[in-house]
Write a structure and sequence with these properties.
alpha/beta, Rossmann fold, elongated, 13 strands, 351 residues, seven-stranded parallel beta sheet
């Protein structure tokens, strides 16, 4: 557990002391953490973003090249914190937890429960062996490594045809998986895409902006009712759900207050079920990618059984094979493919 705040280290220590299967060590700085990680080879690292001497991103960069292991970031719920978190996920972090605002000690119980859950999931997470392979090789031979920065792409005019709708659900490990999916789709992709990615509201806007800069498609966050258009991607706003509804003759994506029947938000289950209220199953394609839990599995199995088509990410590429694995176990997946092949499969189904 790496954090420069003595109070946060104390609170984290108290939280994990209730878990008999954890042994916890602490570091105060990034440099101290690197030495401890090299010495003890931990199963999981939690890493604060804002630290003196070496910030969390610089420390993560070194960890993933020198001693790769699952990392859960602890991030501030600000715009800058969201951007840093998304960059951390691109660098190889498995997941993140948002720090409470205001008096940390008063709201830490909720954060502690989430942190324990995500650390436990991260302990079994799969790190991509190909991630930043060139930089790892350079490190081992003593060369300097540079981090490749994402580049923006030119948008082209989308197709005017929209005969169906693609529904995507992701959680832990989702942002890099979404990047792999969307960057392999052309601007002429004829169906709208609606995404439920489990994230707080302070992060989904930054995610949409980031993916919009990388994809040929137009990507935006759903804050108010938006008419669905071909060549466009709609990401549900965090801490709420994204649903499909009808306005006049057309379909819209809209934000809806979360409901207790759906424990994860934005809810993939609720998104799929809302789409089935307005479209025939054969007009829908469901994609379930990396994430812990089972959100989306039941609804996409229902979609599959009704004649719709579904794609589950294969176990070998999923950071956590919870959500797609549950869809496969329910016999609800038409196709089970690695994340880098999902876009190709989707293009075949649409064409």
């Amino acid at each position: 557990m790496v954090d420069d705040s003595a109070l946060v280290r104390k609170l984290i220590g108290q939280a994990f002391s209730t878990q008999a299967d954890f042994e916890v060590q602490f570091a105060r700085t990034g440099l101290e953490a690197l030495a401890a990680i090299a010495n003890s080879r931990p199963d999981v690292v939690t890493l604060d973003v804002q630290m003196p001497e070496m910030d969390g991103l610089a420390c993560l960069d070194r960890i993933m090249i020198e001693t790769p292991c699952p990392v859960v970031m602890v991030s501030a719920t600000t715009a800058a914190g969201a951007d840093s978190t998304l960059e951390a996920l691109r660098l190889g972090a498995v997941d993140f937890v948002a720090k409470p605002t205001g008096a940390v000690s008063l709201r830490f119980d909720d954060v502690a429960r989430t942190l324990i859950e995500k650390v436990r999931a991260a302990a079994g997470a799969r790190l991509k062996t190909s991630l930043r392979l060139r930089e790892k090789v350079r490190f081992k031979i003593g060369d300097s490594a540079r981090t490749a920065q994402p580049t923006s792409v030119r948008k082209a005019r989308p197709s005017s045809k929209g005969d169906g709708l693609v529904l995507v659900g992701t959680s832990t490990g989702g942002p890099p998986a979404l990047e792999a999916l969307l960057t392999d789709l052309p601007a002429s992709f004829p169906w709208p895409i609606v995404i439920a990615q489990h994230m707080p509201a302070t992060f989904t806007g930054s995610l949409a902006q980031r993916l919009n800069g990388l994809s040929r498609l137009e990507v935006q966050e759903v804050r108010s009712p938006i008419a669905l258009k071909p060549g466009h991607v709609y990401i549900g706003r965090g801490d709420a759900d994204v649903i499909i509804s009808k306005r006049g003759a057309g379909l819209v994506a809209m934000a809806a207050p979360s409901q207790p029947d759906y424990p994860w938000h934005p809810s993939t289950d609720r998104l799929v079920r809302s789409a089935l209220n307005h479209m025939a199953p054969n007009q829908l394609i469901g994609i379930l990618m990396t994430g812990m839990g089972n959100d989306g599995a039941a609804a996409m199995a229902l979609l599959h059984n009704g004649g719709g088509r579904t794609i589950a990410e294969a176990e070998e590429t999923a950071v956590v094979w919870g959500m797609p694995g549950e869809l496969v176990k329910a016999n609800g997946a038409d196709f089970v493919v690695p994340v880098d092949k999902i876009a190709a499969q989707l293009k075949k189904l649409v064409s």
